[in-house]
């Protein structure tokens, strides 16, 4: 393990947003910034998502739970609107969708890959 702290810093202000692409999932209007990539899991457990106004992510399950912090704007989960500064913890097995009518930027910590529910 490296002891250089710089090996563990992500400069998110200089990292470009990339279109979120997931096979068989409509992610139009959603962009991602990966903050931490887990080589063992081959996925990012910590990332930011930016939703353009009207964008949504489909109903899904969180086998390992999740943590979400609204950085900017607002989003709606299960009929409840969250605003900048609001924090959400969901336990393992919690299911929901996400949409934003106004646009938003969200910080996520998701320890396990989500499962889309059709």
UniProtKB/TrEMBL annotation:
<dbReference type="InterPro" id="IPR014710">
    <property type="entry name" value="RmlC-like_jellyroll"/>
</dbReference>
<protein>
    <recommendedName>
        <fullName>ChrR-like cupin domain-containing protein</fullName>
    </recommendedName>
</protein>
<dbReference type="InterPro" id="IPR025979">
    <property type="entry name" value="ChrR-like_cupin_dom"/>
</dbReference>
<dbReference type="InterPro" id="IPR011051">
    <property type="entry name" value="RmlC_Cupin_sf"/>
</dbReference>
<dbReference type="Pfam" id="PF12973">
    <property type="entry name" value="Cupin_7"/>
</dbReference>
<feature type="domain" description="ChrR-like cupin">
    <location>
        <begin position="10"/>
        <end position="108"/>
    </location>
</feature>
